[in-house]
Amino acid sequence: MERQELSDALWLRIEPHLPGKVSDPGRTGRDNRLFVGAIWWLARSAAPKAG
User: Fold this and answer.
1) Any idea what DSSP says for residue 6?
2) Is the whole model's pTM more than 0.85, yes or no?
3) How far apart are CA 32 and CA 18, in angstroms?
4) What is the rounded distance in angstroms from the CA atom of residue 31 to the CA atom of residue 9?
5) DSSP, residue by residue, 9-50
């Protein structure tokens, strides 16, 4: 695990609260962990908005 990635322990705590699980109706998320990691990076880095 890299320094800034979500730890497995943290992921296990937040995963059940995200939409897109197999048990949810409709389409499921392809990779929720990757998506949350991207949002985490944006929040930490204070990345400027595109456009």
Assistant:
1) P
2) no
3) 8
4) 17
5) HHHHHHGGGSS--TTSSSPPPS-HHHHHHHHHHHHHHTPPPP
Separation of alpha carbons 39 and 9, rounded Å: 18
How far is the C-alpha of 51 from the C-alpha of 36, rounded, in Å? 22
Domain region containing 32: 1-19+28-51
Domain count for the chain: 1
| Cα 23–Cα 34–Cα 49 angle in degrees, nearest 5 | 120
For the stretch 13-34, pLDDT in tens is 998 888 777 777 777 677 888 8
- Tokens (6 digits) for 22: 């197999």
